[in-house]
Amino acid sequence: MAALAWLLIPLFAVVGAAIWGSWVQRNKTIGDVAELAGYARFRDAMERAHPIAPDSAPFRPVPEAAPAES
Fold this sequence. Notes:
Order of helices and strands: HH
Radius of gyration: 31 Å
Number of strands: 0
Strand content: under 5%
Helix content: 55-70%
Shape: elongated
Oligomer: single chain
Distance between the termini: 91 Å
Mean pLDDT: 81
């Protein structure tokens, strides 16, 4: 009976390798078209020149009002 248990280990390894191999060879081109189009839009947006706003002064926080005394 122990010999049969030892024969199950390679059997499980073969089944696991077959599952992994079929998963690796799956068709991965389905999402590539959308991803490449998104990357092209991103690249176009990065190449465009963005105008500098005339009000480009650094942000200065507004001081908080003092609490009213009653």
